């Protein structure tokens, strides 16, 4: 910062005078600063719209048009309600299943045929150190064991019984645990049914290796402590069949067998009308929200009397006054913007489109009770007839689904549903917004407005240098004046001194 001391000889307020002279010179620079601020506000407004339209398209619209939204099912069970439970999956079809449970699936298991340890055994210590505590000892050296064909290596000098059990649980399809009270090991298959052995089709767990058969006292050939795995026996719509698990999916319905015997259970599936209606209501709300955001910005009245504040003007105002002023100055910056108008047209035209849904009765939003409001509402959606929507879902759920999520084909673009069309065509508007103003939270981009801001900033830099030169020249001129006055005063003093001497 340049330090200047002026007016010593003349008493002239040089600084004040230069400041006033420079105020007039700074007007063009202030106007450039205001222009730069306006463009920055415009860029921010575009980016805010971009963010909200992107969220609507990529999150809310994407989730809404997902298969699960319109495949929601309700499942009811009549008849023998104790025998089964059921729930619909996304692929469930509307159907009735008659199920009779003849036998439940059972997991194979095996328990040590006798106690394997004595009192004082420590399952956390190495097998070798506990050798004397095993009923069948000694336990030394390395072992190789197999359970259902999976091999495990054991080092008695390093591995404890807990370590061995951990290896079994981690590497095989069997879960084992040691009961210190009974002093036995229990093994159970992780899956029910005939899923054991090296081929995965046996009814019993297979064990190989002396550590298992001799020390842990488990042997597939011994019936003691053994339960064979069994497949579930079930009759579905009159057809007797088996399943390895008590939980299986049939026609998109996940069935869980709970109790064998008794009468037939009837499982009925149909569209979950309540859930589908709520999803559609959420879509209408999300659509109206984004439509309002875009419309409000494109129709907002511009306040011509409020330009961006200069730095000097801000110094004279409080923070609250600055905020109030700038809110008015920002209004209407995107009024009648062509990009926003294009997005609005995309929203409105696709909402009113006819869809080749496979049904002549249900082929548009209007046909299922969803209408646009008054003309001045700019395309706002209303569910004017919920009864009509529910009836359409019950009568032809596939047509309703197609209205929203249908996919276009090369030979029939009319098959594209409302949600699919919006998702596809909104991308054009988002691309235009990004080209115009870039994306939020990006420090530098190649957008049109960012380039414009950069050019204005460069012009301001040039002008600031020019103003600094002008200001310096003013000070030089006043400094020269001070020098001249100082010389004149000196000469005057000498003259007076000479006259006084005479």
Q: Key terms for this structure?
A:
cilium, alpha+beta, bacterial flagellum, 4-stranded antiparallel beta sheet, cell projection, FliD_N, single chain, 3 domains, 502 residues, 5-stranded antiparallel beta sheet
The value of Rg in angstroms is: 42 Å
Helical residue percent? 40-55%
Poorly predicted ranges (pLDDT <50, ≥5 residues)? none
Number of folding domains?
Answer: 3
- What series of H and E elements makes up the topology? HHEEEEEEHEEEHEEEEEEHHHHEEHHHH
In what order do the strands lie side by side in the largest sheet? 1-15-3-11-12
Overall pLDDT confidence: 90
Q: Strand count, sense and closure of the main sheet?
A: 5 strands, antiparallel
The coarse overall form would be elongated
By secondary-structure content and strand pairing, the structural class works out as alpha+beta
Count of helical regions = 12
Extended strand count: 17
- What percentage of the residues does DSSP assign to strands (E)? 15-25%
The span between the termini is: 51 Å
Question: How would you portray this structure in words?
Answer:
With 502 residues, this protein is α+β, with helices and mostly antiparallel strands. The chain folds into three domains: 14-68 and 275-449; 73-105 and 232-271, no CATH class; 107-227, no CATH class. The protein has helices spanning 14-64, 67-70, 161-171, 210-215, 273-299, 311-315, 319-330, 338-351, 386-395, 397-405, 418-437, 448-501, and strands at residues 73-79, 84-88, 96-103, 107-111, 142-147, 150-155, 174-179, 184-192, 207-208, 226-227, 232-236, 239-243, 247-250, 253-257, 265-271, 370-372, 381-383. The chain has a five-stranded antiparallel beta sheet, with no helix packed on it. A four-stranded antiparallel beta sheet has the order 7-8-4-10. Strand 5 and strand 6 form a beta hairpin. It is elongated, with a radius of gyration of 42 Å. 27% of the residues are buried.
């Amino acid at each position: 910062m340049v330090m200047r001391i002026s007016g010593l000889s003349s008493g002239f307020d040089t600084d004040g005078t230069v400041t006033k002279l420079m105020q007039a010179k700074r007007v063009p620079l202030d106007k450039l600063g205001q222009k730069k601020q306006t463009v920055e506000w415009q860029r921010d407004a575009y980016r805010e719209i971009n963010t909200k339209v992107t969220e609507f398209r990529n999150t809310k619209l994407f989730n809404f048009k997902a298969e699960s939204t319109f495949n929601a099912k309700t499942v009811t069970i009549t008849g023998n309600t104790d025998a089964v439970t059921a729930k619909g999956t996304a692929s469930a079809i509307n159907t009735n299943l008659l199920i009779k449970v003849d036998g439940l699936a059972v997991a194979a298991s095996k328990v040590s045929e006798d106690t394997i340890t004595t009192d004082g055994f420590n399952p956390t210590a190495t097998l070798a150190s506990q050798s004397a505590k095993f009923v069948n000892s000694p336990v030394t050296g390395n072992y190789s064991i197999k359970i259902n064909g999976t091999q495990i290596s054991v080092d008695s000098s390093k591995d404890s019984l807990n370590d061995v059990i951990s290896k079994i649980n981690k590497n095989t399809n069997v879960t084992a645990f040691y009961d210190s009270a009974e002093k036995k090991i229990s093994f159970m298959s992780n899956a029910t049914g005939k899923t054991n052995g090296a081929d995965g089709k046996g009814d019993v767990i297979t064990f190989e290796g002396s550590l298992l058969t001799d020390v842990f006292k488990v042997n597939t050939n011994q019936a003691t402590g053994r339960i064979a795995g069994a497949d579930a026996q079930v009759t579905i719509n009159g057809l007797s069949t088996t399943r390895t698990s008590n939980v299986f999916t049939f026609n998109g319905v996940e069935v869980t067998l709970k109790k064998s015997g008794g009468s037939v259970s009837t499982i009925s599936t149909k569209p979950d009308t309540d859930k589908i209606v709520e999803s559609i209501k959420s879509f209408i709300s999300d659509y109206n929200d984004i439509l309002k955001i875009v419309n409000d910005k494109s129709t907002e009245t511009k306040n011509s009397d409020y330009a961006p504040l200069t730095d000097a003007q801000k110094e004279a105002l409080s923070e609250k006054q600055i905020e109030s002023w700038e809110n008015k100055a920002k209004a209407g910056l995107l009024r009648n913007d062509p990009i926003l108008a294009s997005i609005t047209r995309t929203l409105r035209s696709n909402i009113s489109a006819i869809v080749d849904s496979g049904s002549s009765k249900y082929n548009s939003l209007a046909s299922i009770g969803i209408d646009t409001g008054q003309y001045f509402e700019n395309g706002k959606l209303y569910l004017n007839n919920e009864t009509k929507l529910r009836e359409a879902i019950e009568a032809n759920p596939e047509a309703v689904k197609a209205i929203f999520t249908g996919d276009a084909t090369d030979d029939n673009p009319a098959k594209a549903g409302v949600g699919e069309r919006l998702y596809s065509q909104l991308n054009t508007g988002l691309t235009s917004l990004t080209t115009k103003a870039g994306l939020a939270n990006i420090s530098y981009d190649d957008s049109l407005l960012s380039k414009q801001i950069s050019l204005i900033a460069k012009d301001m830099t040039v002008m600031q240098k020019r103003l600094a030169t002008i200001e310096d020249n003013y000070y030089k001129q006043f400094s020269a004046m001070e020098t001249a006055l100082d010389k004149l005063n000196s000469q005057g003093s000498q003259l007076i001194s000479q006259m006084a001497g005479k």
